[in-house]
UniProtKB/TrEMBL annotation:
Coiled coil: none annotated. It comes from the Eukaryota. GO terms for biological process: autophagosome assembly; regulation of autophagy. Pfam families: Pkinase. Keywords: ATP-binding, Kinase, Nucleotide-binding, Serine/threonine-protein kinase, Transferase. This is Protein kinase domain-containing protein. It comes from Paramecium primaurelia. InterPro entries: Atg1-like, Prot_kinase_dom, Protein_kinase_ATP_BS, Ser/Thr_kinase_AS. One of its GO terms (molecular function) is ATP binding.
Amino acid sequence: MIKNEEIILLENRYEIYLKKEIGRGQYGVIYECQDLLNEYPDKKICAKKITCFLQDEKSKREFELMSKLKIVAKGNPNIVNVIDVLLHDEHVILILERCEGDLSDLIRKRRRQQQRFTPAEALEIIKQITNGYKLLLEQKIIHRDLKPQNILYVNNTYKIADFGLARIADQFGIYTKLGTPRYSAPQIFWDYQYSYSADIYSLGIIFYQLIFDSFPFDAKDLQRLKHELFLLKYKPIKVSRDLPEFKLDDSIPNLIEQMLLYHEKDRINWTKLFQHKLIINNQFETKLINQVETQSINPFQELSIQETKIEKPSKEQNINQQTTDFQNQIIPNTQPIISKEISKFVEGVDQSYLFQIFVVFILLELQKRKL
Ligand SMILES: Nc1ncnc2c1ncn2[C@@H]1O[C@H](COP(=O)(O)OP(=O)(O)O)[C@@H](O)[C@H]1O
Ligand SMILES: [Mg+2]
């Protein structure tokens, strides 16, 4: 039996089960929760209790942003659904759609199974996050902490979550150093001014990590990481093309390289990313499918396909071709008239006489025009 002190009842509606923890981050704890009104019967929900007090800058920010996202993000499947934003005992409590887990769980699971995400799978995840970001950009929100732990999934749909460090971009864009170092753009370490481009960099690191199950550079500690990031200025990241898929199509390594460039002015921006052929058409996947098909053809089969391509024309095709060539050589631009007359005349005549009949017509035509 659940004791009363283990449950928080909010708005006479939400029961939050404090003994049933789903997840925990640096600033919040996620608990199981039930909506007594059952307003969304097809959706499971959970509650995030922000650990710092309401007076805290971080709490205020999450309260404001989540209240905004509750209204504007409803139609976007790639942003975690905010059902309610409430206050309890000087703490912010968010009622959220409950997901199956976060992307870091999936990365760990693959590692245990000694598998990696295929480039096509990684691209699909990146595509979905990019779609979620469209709304953030529209609302002028910089996330500032994109990383696998903050990407949730449910039924193969990936969702941007945890807006604890996010903020509305302002005119000056001068922000404090925040985020998770491994996913943070160089500007977060050295420049006081950074923008949405910092989120592109984080997404580039996630993209790389999904495919290679590692980071683009070795960084055992913060010192080393900063050193590597500094070097990026002079030595941009070169993504390996060693995977068989990349030998055929290196558009993914090219894109990751563009996402991880040191200077924001050189790095691909969100508008360009939204329009990138990989994001719009999934062209990489199509190419992969073609590749699989080509690979499955045995060399002899391929040879026979080529042979059929240069097959000798049939007798009939030959006659028709000769007719056209001859006609175009002798009297240019006469094809429509002559063909009409021929077609009327030869109706029911054996095709093999067509060429001879045509020669007679040409001669008659030449005589008519006195050529
Ligand atoms: N809606 C949710 N559904 C399922 N799990 C969640 C949900 N929200 C968060 N989690 C889990 O809890 C962890 C911490 O949540 P998060 O919002 O990132 O808190 P923090 O602000 O402390 O980082 C996430 O990494 C994830 O594993
Ligand atoms: Mg988090």
